[in-house]
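ingest -> fold -> write
write: protein_1
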Amino acid sequence: MILMPSSKNKKILLGISIVFLALGILLFLYSPVIFQEGSPWLPVKAVIRLDFSRANIVKLSESENEYMTKSKNGQEIVKNFMKDKGYDYTGQMGSGYFFQSLPRKSAVVIHKYYSRYFSLWKITEDYGDKENNGDKENNLVEELRDCLPKSDMVSHEKCNELLKKITDYNSCVEAGFSIMKSNPPQCAVPDGRSFIQSN
């Protein structure tokens, strides 16, 4: 005699199958978002902390200067965070937010969306203690550092001309802009462009 599964067992198996199918479809559709920062573990931990604690900004890891906020009011949260670190907000160009403090310290904060509800912020601080060798790259870095925090039209036009000199991943990194933790690595320029590292 062949035992046929009972209707109760069939319903349980059907329910489990539907759950796994739904999870598979969600993973397939949203994998670019889930895995955009490599392993999703650190962003997921940050999302949980932002949702279930009083924290309004969360550092993703100790080794990286990258933070997460909720997208709503994220700019103000980051500006207050930088103010607490002694920086004054000086302006914005594209996804780059510029901060200055004395003596000769500056910072660039690059924004990108992790999802509709959460934002990532990469903070690059410059303490002004590097020697200027007078070579081309250092001149570009110094000129950008001089014009980016300013908001007047002449500085804005000068910065746009300087940013046009950044045409690939290497020149973006040499200019001091942040490297995104992606696979392959990308370097983001404040005018909204990003360059992928070539092998």
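write: protein_2
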Amino acid sequence: MSDIFTYDWSPENYSASEEDWKDFPILKMTKSSVMSYDWCPKKYFYSYPLRLPQDKTDAMTKGIVIHNAYEDFYKAFDVEKAMDLSKAELTTYAMGLFPIDEWGGEQYWTSANFEAKRFDEMRESGTIDNFLPVGNEVQLDALYMIARNQNPKFPLTRDYYVHLQGIIDRLFVEDGGLLPMELKTGGWKDYKTTGMRKESAFYKLLIEHADDEQLISQGIDPEMKVTQWGWWYPESNYIYAEKVKQTSTTSLLKLMAKVLWSYEQANFPAKYYYKTCSHCSYFGICDDAQNQSFW
């Protein structure tokens, strides 16, 4: 398999024969890059193939800090110690595992209460063995083939192998299957459901096509399948899990095929919407945004 994967990719690399494709660079795809393309193909082009810098915002810093804090929470949580704590003591214990900083604030308190309640319920139901995740910030790589007819509206000239890469916030065992759980540090809105399902479908694809050695090295049973997925928004105290939806995986694969189509066509069109474009890091250099009569 090619060990060269990049966003600065050209389909001309595939002018070689089917047997020789492994010797050429392949396109890298992450959850963030694919969802960035879904948001706006032109923003994707600026951010990934061109690698133009973006300003680091407070929201980005907040997200990094809280993600790190939650990762450390699960590393430090002592199940044996917690088994003897009362409900009130559990909350105090959980809160003590989160840091004191300017970023987490109320989210740490909400998370501590949630985790204490979850622990107490699992202790009562006898399912405490599944309290800790089997995967905590799991980084995986996988090879996946996108068929030329994956998206009939944007047909490709050939099949393409792509390199999938991602870090899964948490991976739990639930009802005998795997449940990837995504942590989000912004506020929840119902319109985000479709996007969250596509993100979760990406993780499912990544887990199912990672090699067994990767999974075993991180304590994950390669025989287990992703049967559910979910997301946690502590700012809104909103958590949701559901059985996997094949329609979401199909939508994701069509989107991934469309990314490849843009590379083939050398066309990354702007998806203009005044409410979001005004907050884009590339607004000042995007002709499509600048030429809108709204501005």
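write: annotation protein_2
The two ends are 48 Å apart (CA to CA).
The chain has two domains: 5-55+133-265, 78-130.
pipeline exit 0
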